[in-house]
């Protein structure tokens, strides 16, 4: 296959050629200058990648390909992702233009006061009082141990959401009865994929779970309510939390797929009851995993689908998320060498892998004459905290969050933040729960509480909105709620959680740095501007008055 030959392009050659590739193109003004409209946008989310990581690697020759892109683009040095800084709201910000206030998604594992638990196998109706955890991760797969989610066609076909078992989804009561809530139906607003597809352009995205069906956006007029979303024409999502097993590595080959990274050392206990490893358990495991998506993206650049077997043309919007940096920050053997953000060997390895992958993509674009025609947008769903490993404090949220609240506790999600839902939030119940946490004699890890008017101004009123948490505990830097070995987490409100890298590049753009604050939700209207579309077709952009990113030539504010 021609696509495979492109994928196997030497990364060393890609790194050498990239500056020359970019320098040899025509210079012009920004996104909409002189009526210019890009034909493609390549969106890359390097999860965990801080602004300080980009600054360090570009000045220490650790990421020459990213450095070359920065020579022809705008670096946003003061970019922030969403609060909470979880993967779901972080990704949705980039593709909807909204925060949890409009999107209604606070975490990939959260709570809805009107929902019911998954039906299970065999299915059960919505029974008992409403109020249920809403988890959208590997748990919704037909088989979470398999890299295809238990359905081969999720990787060989064009929609990985076919791996979702509806009986694993939360449910709600409607006029049609008790129905599963698919991820794309869970989010409350539409996405760039819906807008772009509605204008007759091809769309694609690659991510880490089939549950990223959510990026299709809420579009009940054209998408099935009880089935996979359809706004992403080529949705590719190998299961990252599947077993790190030789069986999964072999399955990739059997399905005709490849990785741009070497096969990892697998866990001989997998699959099986004693298997304790997934593709995030080692840096070679996660790089192999990310390499599968890189291979798929290179195929799309070559004009194929992600498998390289169909030829629909390069999508107008496409891209992927990288997990390697995030894992390199979390692993016990990973992280930073000092408090200033010098990456240690494991993290440096991950950054180097991502950079080489970016170089391969740009070389692929150049081979097809698409460099000038493609806007490359690089950011991160989330950061990671703490950078300074000496600050790590590990706590048990069951003991220090649920325990003090007592019988009125309904649910919490706690990584390096604590989002808390109560059974009864009427009257003084919320303040009573906050007081119980403040008066707890041990260490809750919480530095400040967001509740009442302060929470309502930032999000929604939990007494009226079924998703909004009653209390958000903002932790001290370094606090992680875990029993595991990880040395960093995300989800929180602290600078290391939210201060992410952002780079927008094309040979037509002059080198510049924007130091004023921007947010990752501004990526969505920027992408629509780049493709010549109206950002106000995004519901969240209109609700939250989200502007396009500044400094790119002809951005316009939304109404």
Layout of SSEs?
Layout: H1 2-7, H2 11-23, E1 40-46, H3 51-59, H4 64-70, E2 73-76, E3 79-80, H5 87-96, H6 100-103, E4 109-112, E5 132-135, H7 153-156, E6 171-174, E7 177-180, H8 183-186, H9 192-198, E8 204-206, E9 234-236, H10 246-254, H11 283-301, E10 317-322, H12 324-330, H13 345-367, E11 374-379, E12 393-395, H14 397-405, E13 409-414, E14 417-422, H15 429-438, E15 446-450, H16 453-458, E16 471-475, E17 479-481, H17 495-498, E18 499-500, E19 503-505, E20 512-514, E21 518-519, H18 523-530, H19 539-544
Parallel strand pairs: 1-10, 1-11, 2-20, 3-21, 8-9, 12-17
Antiparallel strand pairs: 2-19, 3-18, 4-5, 6-7, 11-19, 13-14, 14-16, 15-16
Helix pairs in contact: 2-4, 2-13, 11-13, 12-13, 14-15
What does this structure look like?
With 559 residues, the protein is of the alpha/beta class. It has 2 domains: 1-104 and 183-389 and 489-547, Alkaline Phosphatase, subunit A; 393-486, Gyrase A, domain 2. Helix content is 30%, strand content 15%. It contains 19 helices and 21 strands. The chain has helices at 2-7, 11-23, 51-59, 64-70, 87-96, 100-103, 153-156, 183-186, 192-198, 246-254, 283-301, 324-330, 345-367, 397-405, 429-438, 453-458, 495-498, 523-530, 539-544; strands at 40-46, 73-76, 79-80, 109-112, 132-135, 171-174, 177-180, 204-206, 234-236, 317-322, 374-379, 393-395, 409-414, 417-422, 446-450, 471-475, 479-481, 499-500, 503-505, 512-514, 518-519. It has a 6-stranded mixed sheet, sandwiched between helices. Helix 11 packs parallel to helix 13 and helix 14 (397-405) crosses helix 15 (429-438).
